[in-house]
């Protein structure tokens, strides 16, 4: 049986504490997840970014389970937009909360 995606597993283990996500373009921010779930190997999470009031964020694994993708929906938007691929997830430092 295939393993869980290591980035998704880290996000799940850190939540509900704040998690710093670094994207494949090098940008990073602190997120607080409201829910994280695995459906067998597939991962899904929903939450918010600390410095982006009103926007919703969703994380999902790709079909091949190789990557975790981050999407955003703003308070005045009806559609989700792709933010990027999560390269790294780590527990946020206390000073970042």
What features would you describe in this structure?
- This protein has one helix spanning 6-14; strands at 19-23, 28-39, 42-49, 56-61, 68-73, 81-91.
- It is mainly β and 97 residues long.
- It has a single domain (6-92), classed as SH3 type barrels (Roll), CATH 2.30.30.
- Strands 1-2-3-4-5-6 form a six-stranded antiparallel β-barrel.
- Strand 1 and strand 2 form a beta hairpin.
- The radius of gyration is 13 Å and the shape is globular.
Concise account of the structure shown:
The longest helix has 9 residues, at 6-14. The protein has 97 residues and is mainly β.
Percent strand = over 45%
Overall number of structural domains: 1
N-to-C span: 37 Å
Main beta sheet, described? 6 strands, antiparallel, barrel
Number of strands: 6
Q: Class by helix and strand content? A: mainly beta
Rg result: 13 Å
Any guess at the CATH architecture? Roll
- Classified by CATH, the class is Mainly Beta
Encode the helix/strand succession as letters.
Answer: HEEEEEE
CATH topology: SH3 type barrels
Count of DSSP-assigned helices: 1
Question: Keywords for this structure?
Answer:
mainly beta, SH3 type barrels, six-stranded antiparallel barrel, 9% helix, Transcriptional regulator
Question: Which SSEs are present, and which pair or pack?
Answer:
Layout: H1 6-14, E1 19-23, E2 28-39, E3 42-49, E4 56-61, E5 68-73, E6 81-91
Antiparallel strand pairs: 1-2, 1-6, 2-3, 3-4, 4-5, 5-6
Protein name: Transcriptional regulator
Domain DUF8072: 1-94
